[in-house]
Amino acid sequence: MSKWNKGLPGIILTVSLSISVLAGKAFSSEAPIIVNYLVVEEKTQPFQIVSEEGHSRGGIISDIVEAVFEGPAFAVKHHVMPVNRVQQSIADLKVHHWISFGSPVWTSFGEMGERVGVPLFETRHVLMTCSPDVPSEIDSVDDLAGLSIVTLRHFDYLGLDEAVEEGLVRLIPVDRYTAGLELVRVGSVDGFIEMVSRLRYQRKQLEGDHSCIREVDASAIIPNYPIHLYLDRRWPTTVKQFIAKRLEEMAAAGELEQIFNRYVLTEAIWQSSVQ
Q1: pLDDT tens digits for 167-205?
Q2: Would you kindly state where each structural domain of the chain is located, as residue ranges?
Q3: Taking the model in full, what pTM does it have?
Q4: Lowest mean per-residue pLDDT among 7-16, 124-133, 196-205
Q5: What strands lie across the sheet with 125-129, from one edge to the other?
Q6: Terminus of the chain with fewer CB atoms < 10 Å: N or C?
Q7: Which residues contact 168 (CB under 8 A, 6 or more apart)?
Q8: Which positions ≥6 away from 270 have C-beta within 8 Å?
């Protein structure tokens, strides 16, 4: 977001916070605290999955958020919207007491977002390609010289900026993963660079023969980085501490890894599935 890079009608939201939370004491047992969970439309699967009707339908981040706030003290409200509207709504202070996900290497939420708790998981980027012109190993952006690379529109790709500015590579922005992978499959572009978890998830949705597609590790261009929950810094300290504690407990119990593995195949299983 921006590697991120329907809606909220009226978009000015209010939250119901008990007086006890505002005072930094125990949560009220009478009315649940409303958590406005921001879900990006279409582009973040399997982190956040949205149905064709525009409804939030699980995903790694969504399942983690629901697990963090499980119980009667909180009520999670899912708000699905395009990535640019998510960012603009936060910047304009039109949505209050929100939670979403991000990374320290992104600038998705500006000064209004605050990282909370332990990392949820770590990303890794790959280039999916059918082109014989793409080397089997990428050591630097120079290895991509002259290639056309698909990326997601409205997302920033750290490490590719310099190559684009110098004219080494040509980026082809798309709005949908399937459109980008189809361009790869038919040979219209040289490759599609993205997080391996996202591309593998989307590749499983492809129809037709896509056996030509191979993965090339792109970590030399885009280093691995952690994904965290981010929240509205206006949340009371008590709530922030509660979230951080829950994430620590979930990490120690292996729950974060279990949720991740629901949506992303382990390396061994993935390799056997594409043989």
Answers
A1: 899 999 999 999 999 999 999 999 999 999 999 999 888
A2: 19-122+227-273, 125-217
A3: 0.82
A4: 7-16
A5: 170-174, 148-152, 191-195, 125-129, 214-217
A6: C
A7: 141, 142, 144, 145, 146
A8: 200
**CATH of region 19-122+227-273, choose from 3.20.14.10, 3.40.190.10, 1.20.1070.10, 3.40.50.2300:** 3.40.190.10
Q: Are 128 and 184 in contact (CB under 8 A)?
A: yes
Q: Which fold has domain 125-217?
A: D-Maltodextrin-Binding Protein; domain 2 (3.40.190)
Q: What is the 3-state secondary structure (H, E, C) of 154-208?
A: CCCCCCCHHHHHCCCCEEEEECCHHHHHHHHHCCCCCEEEEEHHHHHHHHCCCCC
- d(Cα 251, Cα 229) in Å, to the nearest integer? 13
Token pair for 179: 């459109």
In 3D space, the residue among 45, 40, 175 whose CA is nearest the CA of residue 108 turns out to be 40
Which residue's structure tokens are 């590697």? 3
For 208-217, what is each residue's pLDDT tens digit? Answer: 888 999 999 9
Residue keyed to tokens 């002259």? 146
